[in-house]
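Memo to structure team: turn this sequence into structure tokens by end of day. - J.P.
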Amino acid sequence: MPKQYWLVKQEPTKYPWSQLVKDKKTYWDGVRNYQARNNLQAMKKGDLVLYYHSVVGTEVVGVCEVVRESYQDPTTDDERWVVVDLAAKKALKRPVTLAEIKEDDALADMALVKQSRLSVMPVTKAEFDRILKLGSKAA
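Reply from structure team:
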């Protein structure tokens, strides 16, 4: 089965990329939106995930990998909510800003642009590859 690609958003004041790198892996909790939850449930081990700093910075800063598929969110007794485990893979050489993404014709239909409030969203392979390319260029 082909690998899927995703983007998760997190405020860097709450859990920055640097903390994930230090922790090596974490469970992705606190999702309380049904569409975002459904996306978590669709994630498979080995899928790649763009790590996006929201609110402050608004930029893609790194790539994670799904290392455990969805299970009950340990921060709530409500069975409707799930988490996945993510492991840090690599930082981008330079962050790719939301402004750059919005200006790039190849990324015009990206969920990040179309559904900006969603915290967990699918990304096409072409979008994923384009962001990696943009993030691989020197600052």
